[in-house]
Amino acid sequence: MSNHKLITSAAGRLFRLGELAGRVGVSIAGNAMANLFRDADSKVEHKATALIKNAVRVKEALGRLKGVPMKIGQILSLHEKLFPEEVAQVLRSLQQKAPTVPFKDILTMIRSELGRRFTHITDIDETALAAASIGQVHRARLKDGRDIALKIQYPGIDEVIRADMKNLKGILKLLFSMFTRMDMEPVWQELNDRLLEELDYEKEAANMKRMARFFKHDRHIIIPKVIDKVSSRHVLGMELVSGISPDALSEGSFSQEIKNAWGESMMRLVLKGLFDFKFLHADPNIANFSFMESGGIIVYDFGCMKEVPEAICKGYVCLIQAALNQDIHLIPRILQSMGVHRADGTPISSAMVSDFAEVFYEFIEPGVVYSFGDDHRIYERIQALGYKHISESMSLVFPKDIIFIDRTFGGHFGNLCRLNAAADWRAILSDHVKPSLPAERNH
User: Fold this and answer.
1) Among 64, 51, 81, 49, which Cα is nearest to 12's?
2) Among 89-98, 115-124, 142-151, the least confident range
3) What percent of the chain is modeled with pLDDT above 70?
4) d(CA 96, CA 262)
5) CB-based burial label for 367 (10 Å; 0-12, 13-18, 19+)
6) Which of 10, 173, 279, 327 could bridge to 322 as Cys pair (CB 3.0-4.6 Å)?
């Protein structure tokens, strides 16, 4: 991973995004013009080349900008089957191989944040273990001999995120108005709140401790322990717990059995968070996980967490029970009770619900072990249904609380596809939609 100075000025970042859009636009237009003079085979070849070039441009620009734009790229990469494989590989690299910030800037940040507590550290590896949207991780050693992981926030990223959010609010409102008539302000507030929470590593440390309590008896889901004496608002020390990296998933010859176990562990993390604890790990970027030979997973990055309101939790329980029992006729009213309905307050049409339920039901047919790698057309089918019901979709409203829940499920859908994970998903869902206990509130 190469070193790059972080672009922190609002004007500079807006210029880079505009420049990126312009370069991609010119490339697409130029390729379309040239295609007028090419034969069919040449058109396909040049289209593929243009796609890859533009994906590289997007990856490099978003990686250098960090912050919100990079998060957008990471979300895109979760749904890699929407893109040609060459393009997916380029976007996939945003999940773990973003350009790093120079070590001298990182070291200055650590010294400034820890003050006298910096003496607890005897050594820091200059090469980053990982680089993400708001910080990077370095191996370090404590005086007592323990090797730990230090997560350090990029200097100035706090101001960068706030500037990005201001810049993007107007753009997203414009885009939002193109496909829905609902008020975007509550949705925007939810996005803003979750992203700004990620800047507070003290809050993230508290999230990690809380999740560690929840999963302390689950040997398949490992949460690293926080090292308080080398942690602050912008530096987070944690035990160094390593496993098989996401990059190795496509490179290694892992058995389908262990991939299935990893998929089940990921699904149980989500379902327990939603239904048992009502506290959801809401950043499904696959770089936030590593994988154990036992079939378990190690979970990192607890900056984006979602407190799940009781009513929303109960709504999802009812939805899944209706799907399991094929009571599709109940779903419009259940959604309405959750705050998902048409703008005039009436339920979503039975036709729209039935079409999407038919696709979903394939995952949970009784006695079926469904593999997410079997049907690569699943995204095309969902897209086609989106176009079919676009008029009704534009009239829908939904509560802000489901945004990050749906993002989590959607992201893990992409992760399960990447693993080609197969399981009796019906049985796993059934285990988690029993009447749930009240959420823990003493935290």
Assistant:
1) 64
2) 89-98
3) 70
4) 19
5) exposed
6) 327
